[in-house]
Amino acid sequence: MKLCAVSVDLDEIPNYFRIHGLGEPSPLARHAVYDRGIDRLLAMAASSGFPLTLFAIGADLERPESAAKLRQAREAGHEMGNHTLDHRYDLTHLERAEIAHQIAAGADAIERATGERPVGFRAPGYTITDQVFSVLRELEVRYDSSVFPCPPYYAAKAAALGWIRLRGRTSHSVLDTPRVLSAPTRPYRVGTPYWKMGDGVLELPIQVTRGLRLPVIGTSLTLAGPARARMLARMCIGAPLVNLELHGIDVLDANDGLDALLPFQPDVKVRRERKLESLHATFDTLRDAGYTFVTLREAAEALG
To answer: In this structure, which CATH number among 3.50.50.60, 3.60.10.10, 3.20.20.370, 3.40.1190.10 belongs to the domain 3-303?
Structure first.
């Protein structure tokens, strides 16, 4: 059994400004993920013939237009996932009661907007702890997909946060413990600590390659270009689940009002047509290798 799941974190553009310690985005950019990105994502999935798992932030759905877009995706057969109520990058630093509120209220908001209560969870910034896993278990969340055991990503994130501080800005992003880098790369039930196997919540880790554990996520694939994206995909073949995690910004570019991010995010400089070429090259490579595309919920049911 070889499964591939494509999930998308629907982080709106203000979250990227918070990462880089910037002000507020322009009105054109503020809701670009919902206003333009979701239509492009649905078209991408339809053209390749597979379902998406969309991780939504509950507070974004207070805007009727955004709620309607997510409901449209649900009606098209895509899975809804919980990305918390407010996308607090410091979720792991909060008191247990507030962690539970962020997770439960996020699920409530998604259910109100779409009629489907999410069964899966992804933490903001891939940062999670044993306490968050304990809350997930208490709330009977069926699976988590937050653990990212990727040394190159961890090093790049640490360097970026250091650079932001040197420039006198304050990032909202939080660096996870380096022990996450020893976590399994294949689906597992978490133990205590969560980077070891146990009998807890089912974890579907974010995808890395064999060996070097290079990142195989939307940012790396769209920056790589089609040929290198195929190479990264081939380096994942053999895994029982290839868990491709994208962001809504992966189908946007500077023409979507993201000019202010150009000095800070190289992927914004890549034309969206080129990004989509790289993503389709990845999907085609995995399909040619015999992978069946499913939602993360279907993957959890098959592998759990």
So the answer is: 3.20.20.370
